[in-house]
Write a structure and sequence with these properties.
Shape: globular
Low-confidence stretches: none
Mean pLDDT: 88
Order of helices and strands: HHHHHHHHHH
């Protein structure tokens, strides 16, 4: 998958999250959007990292990512993410069980376990979108961050690389985030600037990281690479909402 195709896919997924935040009953549509992100990450994660036993890796990442989304949605009261550590702990156990069930001699055992757990962390991070949608800022926080993320993803397709690309993505996201924060209710300009900065840095940093992986050009790996910035950004959006807005 080309850089431009991944950028368009990332922007479309960010737009999906933004649109879901305004659909009732909130935050159930956001949960559905997060499940889409988790599935895309799970499908392409082993291909992107060239992990052995891709089937078991996909199952573990998908189950734990969806489990994290369900736990966040069903948790009552605060802190809304208090059950995610248990999901992550269970994911580590599942990763080891998956390796024990392998019948191929278990080559690259360390890489497989660490890669699976890393995929789980990325998938669980998407639950931050659900937690953000449940906050007081709610849809405004999600939309501001998602729009800034979409713009940063689009800018990342420009023919520039390295730290210059990171800087351009961050600046574009900050500008758009500030504008969205000014226009939307329940959020202010400064909060929008912070949301844009976080979204731009996540997109730019992952773009720098992923351009070193040649396997990202494969179809499934490209889908995972496209969904990864949106998924990972979820937890950072929630943190920004708690530290800056609430």
């Amino acid at each position: 998958m080309s850089v431009s195709s991944r950028a368009v896919t990332t922007a479309a997924l960010a737009a999906l999250v933004a649109a879901a935040s305004y659909v009732q009953p909130r935050p159930l549509p956001v949960v559905a959007a997060v499940v889409v992100l988790v599935v895309l990450v799970a499908l392409g994660w082993p291909s992107m990292l060239r992990l052995p036993a891709p089937g078991s890796t996909r199952v573990v990442v998908a189950l734990c990512g969806i489990g994290g989304a369900a736990a966040t949605y069903l948790t009552e009261g605060e802190p809304v993410l208090r059950h995610l550590p248990m999901v992550l702990a269970g994911a580590v156990v599942l990763a080891f069980i998956a390796q024990m069930l392998r019948r191929d001699g278990r080559p690259q055992l360390t890489e497989s376990v660490s890669g699976t757990v890393a995929g789980v962390v990325a998938a669980i991070a998407a639950s931050g979108w659900i937690a953000a949608a449940r906050s007081d800022a709610g849809a405004a926080l999600v939309v501001t961050s998602a729009v800034a993320l979409a713009v940063a993803a689009a800018v990342s397709a420009l023919p520039v690389r390295g730290w210059v690309a990171l800087g351009i993505s961050a600046i574009a996201a900050v500008v758009v985030g500030g504008a969205a924060g000014t226009l939307l209710p329940n959020i202010d300009t400064v909060s929008g600037l912070w949301c844009g900065l976080v979204a731009g840095l996540v997109v730019g940093a992952l773009h720098l990281l992923l351009e070193r992986l040649p396997a990202r050009r494969a179809r499934l790996a490209g889908l995972a690479a496209s969904a990864l910035p949106v998924a990972v950004c979820g937890i950072f959006v929630f943190v920004v909402g708690r530290m800056v807005i609430l």
